[in-house]
Amino acid sequence: MTDQGGTTPAGWNPDPAGRHQYRYWDGATWTDQVSDVGQVTTDPLTAAPSGPMAVQAAGTGGSSTGVRTALLVGLGLVVVAALALVFLFSGGDDDGGGDGASTTEGPELGTGDVQATLRWDTGDDMDLHVIDPAGDEIYFASTSSPSGGELDVDDIPSCIEEGPHVENVFWPTDGAPSGDYEVFVQNYTDCDDSPTTATLEVRVRGDVVIDEEVTLGEDEDSEHFSFDV
């Protein structure tokens, strides 16, 4: 098994038989020494059509074929792993998974003739106050009034509990007395000595009549907002 030209120096070259990554060329003939991923073994070569230069020129060496195969297999594994991660974090089904309930939904809020809703995101204890036409005040210490109003959602977060948080006062349909109402917000407990911003919305028979943003420090009350029913 002699190189026809006899000019290629000794060294490792792609295996002309294609069985291994490399075979050692001693400068005149192919030897039995082969190498795969750095591991040298022996495998007799029964026939060699040409020397290393001809094999490299033909582009049929076992090394390039093996590398291409390994790259394709590796790429396929990466794609499969990526698809598995997408499936896992999407909940495992097309419509968001689970029983159809959204984990971002808050508590069910009472609605009717009057609905006052307070929302905020920090751990501060913000309180909603509503005063009805008779002067009765609904808040955390008095959660209902003789006129039929009710504080149905009272959120008392701890300082490490981020929002969203919500409080809600409502009068049921055909249950709110006519007259002048007042609503305001108090920052009952401030966690980090910085003001907290909250949004206040009031609806009368479904129509928004108050939509305000208030920023309050501890023990501060917002402006008293008035509306009619």
Mind telling me the CATH class of the largest domain?
Mainly Beta
Integer count of domains: 2
CATH arch. level architecture of the largest domain: Sandwich
Measured by DSSP, the beta-strand proportion falls in: 25-35%
SSE order, as H and E? EEEEHHEEEEEEEEE
Low-confidence regions: 1-5, 59-65, 91-104
- Biggest sheet features: 5 strands, antiparallel
Strand ordering within the main sheet = 8-9-5-11-12
Shape field: rod-shaped
Tag the structure with descriptive keywords.
229 residues; alpha+beta; Lipoxygenase-1; 5-stranded antiparallel β-sheet; 4-stranded antiparallel β-sheet; 13 strands
Question: What do these coordinates show?
Answer:
The protein is an alpha+beta fold and 229 residues long. The chain folds into 2 domains: 1-93, no CATH class; 114-228, Lipoxygenase-1 (Sandwich). It has 2 helices and 13 strands. It has helices at residues 52-58, 62-89, and strands spanning 11-14, 22-25, 30-36, 39-42, 114-120, 125-131, 137-138, 150-153, 165-171, 180-189, 196-204, 207-216, 225-228. The strands form 3 sheets. The chain has a 5-stranded antiparallel beta sheet, with no helix packed on it. It has a 4-stranded antiparallel beta sheet with strand order 1-2-3-4. A 4-stranded antiparallel beta sheet has the order 7-6-10-13, with no helix packed on it. The chain starts with 10 loop residues before the first strand and ends with a strand.
